[in-house]
Amino acid sequence: MSVDKVQPCYPAAVSDLSGLPPIPVASRRDVVADRLREAITSGQLLPGQKLTEVALAEQLGTSRAPVREALRQLEQEGLVVSYPYRGTEVLGVSQEEIEHVLVPIRISLEQYAFRKAAERLDADSVAELESFIAMMAAAAAAGDDSALADADVRFHDAVVSLSGQPHCLQIWRSIQPRVRAYFRRDAGHYADASVVAEQHRRLLAALRAGDEPELEAEVERHIRTHFAEPRGGGG
Amino acid sequence: MSVDKVQPCYPAAVSDLSGLPPIPVASRRDVVADRLREAITSGQLLPGQKLTEVALAEQLGTSRAPVREALRQLEQEGLVVSYPYRGTEVLGVSQEEIEHVLVPIRISLEQYAFRKAAERLDADSVAELESFIAMMAAAAAAGDDSALADADVRFHDAVVSLSGQPHCLQIWRSIQPRVRAYFRRDAGHYADASVVAEQHRRLLAALRAGDEPELEAEVERHIRTHFAEPRGGGG
DNA sequence: CACTAGTCGATTGTCGACAATAGTCCAAGA
DNA sequence: TCTTGGACTATTGTCGACAATCGACTAGTG
Fold it and tell me: What are chain B's domains?
């Protein structure tokens, strides 16, 4: 009985994720989650890719404990799925679920969040949102789609945070990465990067005006323009 | 410096959860999660209640590892919230978030899930759903609101599972416990327990008929009757 | 040749101990 | 008296080792 010819039970696993600075102790769970999320939303890890805890732990220079917690976090965000005693793999999203599940939920959540945020908007928040819009403009000018998507996400995240509704925020944060992962898988993330900043200026204007029907309409229009076609945007 | 008079840094923590049979090894995470979820949705643990890992581990007769994982799971379901190095507490839901966030999402999810489930419905599934309806009738006759709510949840869970849409199911399962926890906090869970089984018979009939507009209307009507008033049902 | 039971390797699940952190209390000094 | 700095405690975060489980492979049996 030759040991050499024995095939491994499970396929190869895990592309290389190392090569970044070492992770400081005591915040490893979050850093691991961030790196894995980035690897998935950027397309470095594709759906079906097997992830094993030991391999990830070695590549990231930690023990299995933070990796396990990070995988649980990503499972919550719908980016991976794990089977007891058998491992974890990257989960894809179908175009149909994007269209019929995730985008409608995002619209519903953000309509409510924008309404609540409008009630609590203050000068500091406006300044923060304007800074994200400036980032978008800069990223679009530089042709940096990744930075553009980051600023896009941070703008929406800031608004939902501002709404002060904990469940709304928690659910939004579990929905958004899936949408981003889906659209990032295609090459060009934004059909027209130059208009993104302007669209968000309109959103901010509607937020400041505070007219509820108009605000809701603007939010829905914004999200639908982003996600109507198979290739929209990341945030 | 007397040690006796030193006050604990954090308030007392954790009502008693023990008193059930010991947990078999190798599925502890899930059992712990189930017990905690039950304690929260039944109102045994109230919002603001502090939960510490060691106390829970001792009461449930395990180590901290499964407790940690269970708490992460409950955090995903929005039942608890945890702060780094400071602990975990039971999270409440406002009536406003129930009305504007959770119920709309449930309607959207279930409308889609019922449509997809109608396409895949077979004899076995129908039999399973009918068995849940029988449980509802029996529970209502026995005046057992808890069993009624269980059967209610299992009916809907079975339909969403049958839809075969992984993200839809995952999100539904993270939404549903919050709704149940909210409504269970009041005394009477169902305004009129006797009609629940009949309502689900109508849902199943619509599912079998498979007419999409009528099915969607029935689903929305069903959920709204349940959750329109501050005291509706659990599933 | 099909079938069943047993073995083996890969992987996750669990445990106990230690490290790191945040908030509290107290004492010393202005 | 008010402030400020330093211990102290409760708690979570991380680690390495071991146990349990699953699927695949193998050998034996009809």
Answer: 1-92 (1.10.10.10), 95-227 (1.20.120.530)
